[in-house]
From TrEMBL:
It comes from Terrimesophilobacter mesophilus. This is Acetyl-coenzyme A synthetase. It catalyses: acetate + ATP + CoA = acetyl-CoA + AMP + diphosphate. The gene is acs. Residues 89-483 form the AMP-dependent synthetase/ligase domain. Mg(2+) binds at V549, H551, V554.
Amino acid sequence: MSETIDSLLHEERRFPPSSDFTATSVATPALYEDAGKDRLAFWADQARELLEWSTPFTETLDWNNPPFARWFADGRLNVAYNCLDRHVLAGNGDRVAIHWEGEPGDSRSITYAELTREVMKAANALEALGIRRGDRVAIYLPMIPEAVIAMLAVARLGAIHSVVFGGFSAESLRSRIEDADAKLVITADGGWRKGKVFPLKNAVDSAIASQTDGTSTVEHVLVVRRGENDVDWTEGRDLWWHDVVDSAPDEHEAEPFEAENPLFILYTSGTTGKPKGILHTSGGYLTQCAYTHKNVFDLHPETDVFWCTADVGWVTGHSYVVYGPLANGATQLIYEGTPDTPHPGRWWELIEKYGVTILYTAPTAIRAFMKTGREYPQKFDLSSLRVLGSVGEPINPEAWIWYRDIIGGGRTPVVDTWWQTETGAIMVSALPGITSAKPGSAQVPLPGISVDVLDESGNRVGNGNGGLLVVTEPWPSMLRGIWGDPERFIETYWEKFDFEGSPNRRMYLAGDGARLDSDGDVWILGRVDDVMNVSGHRLSTMEIESALVSHPIVAEAAVVGASDDTTGQAVVAFVILRAKQAEAQTAAEAEALLKAQVAEQIGAIARPRRIFIVTELPKTRSGKIMRRLLRDVAEGREVGDTTTLADTQVMNVITDKLR
Ligand code: WT7
């Protein structure tokens, strides 16, 4: 690890913006100057400029009770109105909001006027089903326009959405429905993926049926027809979207809510087995989504076609498929399926077809395309592209250069954007018309954002050194808490750097390691906790371990993230079987069984790449599993220092067995 980091830090290539780009750049150096002069005044200006407030705010930030921040708290606005109606009222109703392409090749282009009407109908329908301000609505949908419509309809009513990625299992959905006491679930019969329909509704049925206390808070399940596959039906509870929404009135007045009205909960993996429900609110979140989407991607809404390839089930989809682009009145592309269906050039074909100008995707995808080869992108005209973005995990310089050269034709700026579910929007990134880009580094905090790198005791490490990444000042789109668990919110993020005697000097612990180079630019080194990053998705070692031990054949399990050429990290598990099972089964049978178990409990993204059946796990005298040693094994390295093990022979036993 440290070797690759050192070679990364010796990356000497620099890509200053071209004078053509700078000439029309949305962001100008004045942003840094203004934010540097008066950070809060800067954010207040952004909030006023980018959004329409029904009641203007007078106070920018209330940080009297840290870490519970209140931004623009006496202002009122409606989030959906800001994403829809106001663009129509400003005369842009005919602008396309969404070009949608289904995996089988069906497509729809939806203007702002049409999208506004659809959301109004959906809001009326939801209201008729009893959804009111503050109610929780779970959304479990494929990447179809109804996913965006559903989210905005919930937001329009001041209710709270909890979008659950369609690749998550019934069990994951159950725990999220239960944690948030969702009243309504919006799903589809199925969606298209890799040339086939994958079912969703049946997972909702079993999630509701298996709710632990036998009763469910879910009153209705609203089902979009997409896969045309058969579904079971519970009369009275289940309703078709086309029955309920299509016939609803297409006028709906948006009620303004206070800026701190909760907007959504999004679950993300932490260091324990239980996912955290990250809570975001309205005014501050929308301000920073709009601000970052505009400046980081150099958005010219009249001419650009933006494409963020993330699923709405992740925070990237919330902020850069739904809220950022729509608040800015942008035109965007949404694609339902996988990049290689029906052919490996599908993405590039879509870029040509829709004239996409800004592409925002993850390093995993880029590395996968590098493997399949440049001949696929080179079959299509990608000359419309002018800005490329990367998110989710560190992008290695090789992938960065390939992205710029092969996809961007050697012309386009590439912005590497660091942020998290918790931060709500981009925090650290180059600005394409201003920053001289450095492949592999996320570079600089955005104007208005303050980050630093500290050592374990809270001292600044300074340039040339590594440590823990922190955010030193509150920011508008910061998480407001963990749903139902204020203690965990404080413990996880705010306790480590709570500087005594100065209550408002609490700093936000991101959970990432980082280094500052000699220019002070930030290089993200990856998680410092028991969280893995697989294809830009966060997975918890503990959560996968508990999925494994919940299988009757397993006695004990340890999971590590091993580095992987394509996905960044991959899940590798070490499992001890119960004595009887160990005899009854071959290792290959057990491995197959347990891979399926994890996919079923959590979702296919968590399925381990390898499961090693072992007879011992390396533990310290206090019983803590030394994952570091298992990672050595998983990555095929010489095993490191074993002197702190209770039984120093254990690693020999494991490596002998696996040889
Ligand atoms: C974790 C957050 C933010 C949307 C996608 C993931 C890693 C994110 C970068 C980047 C290096 C990155 C961090 C972070 N990460 N962006 N540009 N360079 N690492 O959201 O699931 O909340 O995961 O993703 O480790 O903590 P998330």
